[in-house]
Amino acid sequence: MALDRLLKGFSDFRLGYYREHLDLFEKLATEGQSPKILIIGCADARVDPGILTQTRPGDIFTVRNIAAMVPPAQIPPDQAQHGTSAAIEYAVRGLDVEHVVILGHALCGGIAALVDGATSAAASYDYLSTWTAIARTVRDVAVHDLAGRPRDEIVRAVEQASAVNSVANLMTFPWIAERVAAGKLVLHAWWFNLVEGQLYAFNPDTAVFDAVTGLEVTPTVQRGTKLSAIKPERLLLTLANKQPAF
Length: 246
Ligand SMILES: [Zn+2]
What we know:
Blueprint: H1 2-15, H2 17-20, H3 22-31, E1 37-42, H4 49-53, E2 60-65, H5 83-94, E3 99-105, H6 109-116, H7 128-132, H8 136-145, H9 151-170, H10 174-181, E4 186-193, E5 198-203, E6 208-211, H11 232-240
Parallel strand pairs: 1-2, 1-3, 3-4
Antiparallel strand pairs: 4-5, 5-6
The structure holds zinc ion (ZN).
């Protein structure tokens, strides 16, 4: 049944979208891809970067993993199979993207599992908790700074702080830091609230996520941004000193 839906969808795509965009597909096939943006999103079925941004094939290079996380660079590189890092490397070094967007989201199961720790159903899985440990320090700081706040609020804070943490981790890759310093690459920490259909972006000046309302957005990291501005601890401290928003 579930597969029927997919095959019907592909049939519709082939007869509709594909035919209507034949020129685009021909161009992409003959000239190759040249996306200017890498989006690192969550594997969550509700948060599809292409649909959220209404982009066309060829517009965005996309990595989706558990909780939209980026691990720190492995220096020197080892023989482990770093899938997310390999995709980032190809987008940055191979395709010369101009923007990298970390797209976190509300109600993220991977972040909830990280917050719940040993009490999570995922605690006994083979790979999940090792992966989400990328943001374990962020979780620990959030639990400490937001002690006494409702679990949902802590999960939301970790969702946002983890996106900032992933941007900080991007800067540990030398070929990313070099391109940022040269003004060729800009990094963004975004958070999509699927409950209200609103996008937010981390503003390094105020250390909070601002609602994106128009066609302008403040980059999280661009040439000249101090690394101290993108410490996730700043966001958590700001959230801790504010009245709960919900
Ligand atoms: Zn998620």
